[in-house]
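Reviewer comment 2.1 asked that we show a complete input and output for one of the modelled complexes. We chose the 3,4-dihydroxyphenylalanine case, as it is the one discussed in the main text.
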Amino acid sequence: MRQNEAMELDALVERASTEIAAATDLESLAEVERSFVGKKGELVGLKKTLGQLEPEERKAAGQALNEAMSSVAAVVVDRRAVLATAAEAEQLASERLDLTEVIEEVKRGHLHLVTQARDRLEDVFVGMGFTVAEGPEVESAWYNFEALNIPEWHPARGSFDTIFVDLGEPETTMLRSHTSPVQVRTMENQEPPIYIVAPGRTFRTDTADATHLPAFNQIEGLVIDKGIGLGDLAGTIESFVGAFFGHEVKTRLRPSYFPFTEPSAEFDISTPSGDWLELGGCGVVQPKVLENCGIDPEIWQGFAFGFGIDRLAVMRYQLDDIRELVNNDVRFLRQF
Ligand code: DAH
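Response of the prediction step:
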């Protein structure tokens, strides 16, 4: 290899080293690498000229060229390591999360609208001196119907659209179709005076539509004491509606029929537009029901009422469709 060629090669390696050192990121380094040792790189270009040399010159020149290429490659490797470490550090810094950061609004879950309504109802009635009672969701015909003065032949039985459970004799075990069986259970187990409300889930074969759900919630009220009459019932409903909806909301009773009360009524509440909305049923407890539960109707009298909690929520918040309550769309639920 001639002297000037060797010097040229040294200069080339030095230029390569300078350019490699000047590359500030992995991409520009790759470009520099390509321009010297890539397929069309300067050093590879020199390799192609070896063929024009004399055989003895060719060997030395080839060796010098190989050394030059590997020294450039080594410099690239070192520089790449430095740049890769820097790039990683930069990425880590940019992705860093400050876990002590205070987020302005904490989005927590909250109780479901129906649970809120149920809790408020309980609060209102507890404030009026009632206690909260419970009963099972699977009932026998005795509690769901018979003790409530709805014998098997009674037409009212058909109106309950009962969901039966496959247990024992056909149609003897069922999902309770109202919370009224809790009246019976309470009277069987508790000496009067009795002042209870019983909220809970109830079930009917209804198809879900804008105003019906097959699984819904009711709240039952029962008062047994001496000298209790229709006036006490009307006053209780008025106080509860005032406390729950606000005292501008009025109530009225309309004559109706239930086998377990006599007289029976449906109670309505007034709306701002002047209409009346039906909320539930109520009445003076049938003496027969008291007897069925071992309470002497000559001494004790009482009243009872029952209404849907889901419907109450629908009225209070003017929902278009009761099914919203069970769709589990958080965008809807978050509003309440
Ligand atoms: N259990 C009745 C129903 O589900 C509602 C009802 C009416 C309850 C009158 C009562 C009552 O306690 O006295 O349709």
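The mean pLDDT is 92. We note this here for comparison with the apo prediction described in Section 3.2.
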